[in-house]
Design a protein that fits this description.
This protein is of the alpha/beta class and about 260 residues long. The chain is about 40% helix and about 15% strand. The chain binds nickel (II) ion.
Amino acid sequence: MFIDSHAHIQLSQFNGDRDAVLKRSHEAEISTILVIGFDMETSLGAVELAEKHTHIYATVGMHPHDAKDLTPDILKTFRKFAAHPKVIALGEMGLDYYRNLSPRPLQKEAFEKQLDLAEELQMPIIIHNRDAYMDILPILEARQGRIQGVLHCFTGDVELMHRSLAIGFHIGIGGIVTYPNAKDIQAVAQEVPEDRLLIETDCPWLAPQFRRGKRNEPAYVRAVAEKIAELRRTSIETVGKVTTRNFQKLFLEKLP
Ligand code: NI
């Protein structure tokens, strides 16, 4: 059994064949899918999907791209959603210094506000980071012990992995690990402690090598697990088992 810990199957890219996509994920032994919101509309879409399917959970949050849109009203709505039994984390939130679609000071402000909410509600968080480790890690370090979560689609090197682990975070590995030139991420996948590893697709984006450039979907998280198993010289079943256990512990059991 495998869990896709980061999917966006609420998006319109899946409107034509969402049921077929879910059927294929079932056939590929994907037991659970965490559907990630990244603004108001996609957060709502995630909750709606989670209400329809027992094996789907949802998150609500504001992506750094849209940080400028995080009004007090939207934050209030996220707070309301957070009480929903199928909403198990906040995010994705974080910093994106690659595309800079919101000004950096506004990105930081929206990030801190969502971190405050996560701390208050004791909910785990999904972190988006692009070219911003130098700012994200100190922000998380300042709250060490009071927050938990995953650095999704981890793209740092082993040194950044160790810093993230020291804060208590999990490492989310996605399809990039299957790309032949992704040496840093492959090294991370090899060295991350077994109890901090999560697998994800980030679909519809970042399809693994065998589908690279095409639409990604939850079933393909198997290809991620397979590559990690090869790198760690273990079985795909073991990767499935430990990442499922980690997911349950982080998201489905109450935080301390
Ligand atoms: Ni995402």
